[in-house]
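**Discrete fold encoding**
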Amino acid sequence: MDPSSPTTSQLDPFAELINQLRQSLFPPGAASSPELPAGPMALPAPFSGAAENCSGFLLQCTLLFEMQPQRFPTDRAKIAFIISLLSGRALLWAKTIWEQAGPATRTLETFVTHFKEVFDQSANSLSVHDQLYHLKQGRSSVAEYAVKFRTLAAASGWNEAALITAYRQGLSPSLRLHLAIYDDSFSLENLIQRSIRVAQRLAACDLGLPAPSTSPTTTAVALSSPVQYPSASAIELMQVDSFHLSPAERQRRLRQHLCLYCGADGHLMSECPVRPPRPAVSSLTSRAEVASLVYFPVSVISATNSISAKALIDSGSAGNFISRHLVSQFHIPQIPCQKMNVHSILGKPLGKGIISHCTPSLTLRIGVTHYERISLLVLDGSTADIILGHPWLRQHNPHLSWTTGDILSWSASCFKSCLKLPIRPSSPTRSTQLLLQATTIESPRGQHDIAVPEEYSPFRDVFSKQLATRLPPHRPLDCAIELLPGATLPKGRVYPLSIPEQKAMEEYVEEALRQGYICPSTSPAASSFFFVAKKDGGLRPCIDYRALNKQTVQYKYPLPLVPVALEMLRGASIFTKLDLRSAYNLIRIRRGDEWKTAFITPSGHYEYRVMPYGLANAPSVFQAFMNEVFRDYLHRFVIIYIDDILIYSQNEADHHLHVAQVLQRLRDNHLYLKIEKCGSWLLEPCPPSSMAESAAAIHLSLKWPHP
């Protein structure tokens, strides 16, 4: 059509009008759809300075600034908003920054940089790699494990292949085996989704299993006559790692020679490549449970000997047993008994399958104070020395800690008949003194008149029991405890005590507190406190300083050599032996090191102010102290081995002078003697009328009577 035609000219005004209308409705710059306002957003949670919350807090603030820019038009408004959400130490830091009015309060970027420097102590790249490498599923679900893995993987920078390998290695062993039938061609995300689906299917199959039977056929060791084998259904219940099959499906697979686990042909269920390995059941329990079994040391006391052994507590055992190996090794007597069949949890015979002998009544000691008479059945093929089963548990009803494997307490009947001190007192006097003998802290009570030889009567105070129990002074050679670099403090546990042990412990602590040897402690260290039996039947308190000793710098001061000491005695004819009272307790712990000796008891937490027994450096420290005290006497007429002093002379006149000098030196240094362990010896040569008479005759001079 010709543009100059009348029709075209008539349309031009309309086109111009349309253009004007369009421009009025859609001005330049508004051609795109108008931006919709952001929806309501929750405010970030207040931040108090916790490093693990720093990055998340800043992310929430950044999102709020981006989605609602009209609320925060300037950087200073954004900074003020962040500060309004701070509390605690984070608010104190921000207050200082705001009052300084520096660059950090003018630009958001500078403020956030300073903020991260102070509070964002997130794991660096190396620690993220370590966490990812060591991450395991453990007892968490696959979904929970996947969340942790994805979080670390995002910050690790690892490639896809490395992440797939790490994810597989962190899964539980059974799930890894089920995933082994799939190839490795899928991605990490596909592997994660596949593992979650497999775990869900396995869980659904486990839910289809009936509850385990509680019949006697599931006991670890059962006695019967004749043997009662468990039914097929009972055995099937033990297969908790397989899919539960209906009877019809089971028969179908058996007829077609298919695997009862995966349903494929060509192999049996025992050879199934998909089935997780199942630990074989031993004569007592499965290998998977060995780590959780409860063993504790016992002593078997017969008429001829005493045997140390380990006893297993097995609540599923129908009897109390002793291994034939232990009986044969130590020649423990055994007598014929009524024959009984014995079988394991699966109904299979144990050893020969028959028990025909038992031991006569033996004394079984558990710990220090629990004694009982018991007859044990002799069991073939037992991996435990002794098995204490359900009859023993029913009789004694002990309170066990299944976490630590300790016996915490005994039943009321045990307190009446089984719990007693290792040796019964033979007289009323012995009984009343027994608890006093249980302590190693010298008590000043009950001090008798001291009978010392007349020539040494001016030194009666050196033998005083009251003076010996005073808190000694600090000296240059106090016991120092230097810890190795990076040492970890001992963390002992509280051992349960019987009633006699509890009384002995209370007397020990009370006496030591009264004398100032110990004091209550707030130390972060704690060594264990327990008792061991003494030969005289008492209880000796012991503190387990082994963990502390491993972390202590060793003091290498030498102890005397016996051959050299004997050579010094050549030519001497008269000797006096002196024994220090409370030897180690005569040395103070160096100021500032007392907290390292802390020990814990059922009644409280204490630390030593004097040098206790059991420290690795105690013998060397005491030897160095004694050598310093008697340095000018050593190898002239004195030999010292830790707390024993031997004075030697060629004649009696010199000897009296030497003993007096030693006693004076002891007095000057606040050291005291135990008179009941002191004595003198006179060596008198006699004419050699025969080979037997050619040796010197030793005469004991009774100059040191007991008090």
In short: The CA atoms of residues 18 and 24 lie 10 Å apart. The radius of gyration is 42 Å.
